[in-house]
Amino acid sequence: MDGIVVIKCGGSTVEELSADFFQSIAAMKDMGKHPIIVHGGGPAINDMLVTMQIKPEFVDGLRKTTAEVLETAELVLSGKVNKKIVTAFQDTSKTAIGLSGVDGDLIKASPLNLDTLGYVGNVEDVNQTLLLHIVKTGSIPVIAPIASDINGGKLNVNADVAAAAVAQAMQAEELMFVTDVDGVMIDGNMQETLTVSDIDKLVNDGTIYGGMIPKVRAAADSLTDKLEKVTIANGNGKNRHENGTLKGTTIIKEKRAVH
Ligand SMILES: Nc1ncnc2c1ncn2[C@@H]1O[C@H](COP(=O)(O)OP(=O)(O)O)[C@@H](O)[C@H]1O
Ligand SMILES: CC(=O)N[C@@H](CCC(=O)OP(=O)(O)O)C(=O)O
Known about the structure:
Keywords: Amino-acid biosynthesis, Arginine biosynthesis, ATP-binding, Cytoplasm, Kinase, Nucleotide-binding, Transferase. Helix content is 34%, strand content 27%. By secondary structure, it is of the alpha/beta class. The protein has one domain: Carbamate kinase (3-Layer(aba) Sandwich), CATH 3.40.1160.10. The strands form three sheets. Strands 1, 2, 5, 6, 7, 8, 9, 10, 13, 14 and 15 form an eleven-stranded mixed sheet that branches. Strands 3-4 form a two-stranded antiparallel ribbon. A two-stranded antiparallel sheet has the order 11-12. Helix 6 packs parallel to helix 8 and helix 7 runs antiparallel to helix 8. The protein binds adenosine-5'-diphosphate (ADP) and ligand 2. Ligand 2 binds next to helix 2 and strand 4.
């Protein structure tokens, strides 16, 4: 299907997203585009873990996930954050349908590295038929990144990774990561464009760290002939192009590839 746009809402910004933000996503449907939302919720998971006296731990932006952490992540992502986003669409003309990767085996994953990361998933498969069905009903899918483990059970998938996998599987025309910074910064300056080789260098030298690592890696991995650029932008909506779309850092394969 043409016109698929995947929007990843970071947990860093989900509490701050305005009614306008949700209205503009709903309006995309009327313009023949088909938005699919994938969301995170890292800060809310951290808060819950702290109340349980469990210390959040990350390796290169991925959460170390014990069985207890997995249960907490699911509770927060599928319960609290997912329903918050679905509810935000009640004030628009469109209906949102919330589900996690577990529902209808929407996202199947395998363990990335049980020894170092625990129950963290690497996406193996996305149920395109189910997503297409939801999209065709006129609704907006809102996806929490907990996946079915192909070996049985569940896995915690980083939301940036899940969004990129959904974009790839659905042959999306656009992928946007909405977060709490204007884009990728180098020495305090927002970068308008970065290439895949720039990203490797910036991760290696530590300019890109923490939660920005899975974002830029997922962006780089999802580039195809159809998806020529991926944008990382601020959810506060202050930086916009003239046509109203969010302005941020655009990631492309190589310098000449932008149209
Ligand atoms: N070079 C960079 N430019 C901008 N932000 C960066 C950079 N390197 C690391 N970050 C961090 O990445 C964060 C965004 O990732 P994260 O907190 O995981 O957000 P989200 O919840 O939206 O996925 C920023 O708030 C910032 O602290
Ligand atoms: C494996 C892994 O890192 N899972 C993430 C899933 C949520 C997420 O990615 O949330 P943000 O988009 O807010 O970072 C986590 O447990 O925090």
